[in-house]
Amino acid sequence: MALKSLHLLLHLLFLANGFCNSDLHFPQKITISIPPAYDPNLHGRAFVLASGKKHLPSFRAGLSLEAIANNLYSCSLAVFLGGLKVWSSDHFSPFSPSKSCVLELTSNGVLQVHDDRGLVGWQTTTFSQQVQRLLLEKTGNLVLMDAKNYTKWQSFDYPTDTMLRGQQLNAPFSLTCLNYSFEVLHDMLRISLNWRGQRYSYWELVPERNISFARLGSMGLKLFDSNSRKVALITGSHSGKQSNRLLAMRRDGNLGLYYYSAVTREFQASYQASNKPCELPLPCGNYGICTFSNSCSCVPLVSKYDDPDGFCGNGNAAAKMEELDGVDTVLSSSSLRLINVSKEECASSCMDECSCVAARHSGDGIWRECLHYGLVGGVREVERGESGHSYWVKVLKGNEKSSGFEKTVVIIVGVFDGLVLCSIAGAILYCFIFFRKGFISEQEFSEN
Does CATH place domain 162-275 in 1.10.10.10? Predict the structure, then answer.
């Protein structure tokens, strides 16, 4: 009964958008109870602020309660554009309250989220700054203001995975989603996969001049130098008069510009950094190969990849390097880069480092490059011999029919669309379920 009552309360608060104000004066305290029974599908919203309905969908802000792992709930202050969460206080650190979750604008000017015992999960650094009210602007910016309407804190200064139209940020800054990040640096733009302390980039843009700040407008993301001169523009290609509302990192590692379609009543992409699944870093997961037909295959000869200790410890002594033919990776490694070494020396250097599980060698003659990887990710099928590179993976000895360090493994991929081909019979079912699930769970960006 208590769980149903909470659902009803949050549903009523969701519908009561017309009764929300655009600002909240101190002292204020809004409390919602935590369900005694865990509901993995719970997405509760208690809206307390609204920006108006001039441009639909409109912005709303309030407490958000969502089910997370380990039978817990995460509670946060969040901003929504329609049904899409565009900012939240728990983006980097989820807060799991015990019995209730409280949003409070205290008399000393601090905005905080805490539980019934006073444990603070998130708060602003505005103590004794004469904060008078919390305002939700029409741009979706949450602002703490004093009596003279000076800004003391604003959510636009703390981006999460989304940048909103009208938002301006100084370089460097980043948008993050899960293990993915879009970085606007002074000298470049970069999208990366962050994996076990290492960064692997898979999209870059280097402008002619340094970047001082970025602003998202209706046309797209504009980049400016220190003299406010436009350096570059990332713009969408959609037709019609709809303007872009946001720039967001998706859960699959793609970056996109989105506009709201009045026809479909959904956010549609006007621009995507990667237009094909195989251009993404993990479309088939770790140790998967994205084929020409956008299906998934497993890397042959691998049975060690599900070991949490990898090849470190005693595992490296039982390993060897194998070259894979007809594949390449979209990832560029920053962990280790060797210059002017042969492909055999490149593979050997990976063999000597237990944390290295793959290596890529490119170039010949005067310029040759070797990159090390801590994962077998971003691997895709390419025409054999087209790129002048070699890609090596570390495997257990004894997994091949014939031995030899320089033996080339010919990968058979793309024969049947959707068919997973693995050389290890015991891994076939695992790969099929895991990789096909990856395609389903990381679909197009939506409001849900």
Answer: no
